[in-house]
Here is the input.
Amino acid sequence: MKKLTLLAAVFGLAVAAHAQAPLGLPIKALGYDVTWNQVSARVGLSQNTNLDLGVNLGYDDTQASDKFGYGVSAIYLVNLHNWGPVSTNLAGGVNLGKAVAVSDLGVKALAAFQPEILLLDHILVSTRFGWELDVTPDVKLATVGQGVSIVTGANFKIVF
Here is the structure.
């Protein structure tokens, strides 16, 4: 098992080292946002601002109704500081979505702090903590955050 894990890690690093934006799109990075369970793409707006766009789709045929779920999000990032491979950002965004087996559309707003670290010039690992406001179906204001765990609490992106 250790050999398979090592082989997968080496393969992942080799792919990341040769990463290029697909089809010449203006995408700086592609990855996964654990907070909102979405595949995300980072688009650079200027030197100090970025836009993370995310999407997810879900289908569960065991449900009697509302078998399909979806979500889209946009997070505006403003860079605060850079210390070598470590950067800090202010994040503000919105998420629109409907979970599988739920009939209501959910709208969430986010205001957060997002530290990031760039590993090996192509792997971006970040976490996010701050406030999240559920606008619909019920209004709720809550603090949100991810643990500093590489397994369950980090967002990953491959930088081009």
User: Anything to note?
Assistant: The CA atoms of residues 47 and 73 lie 22 Å apart.
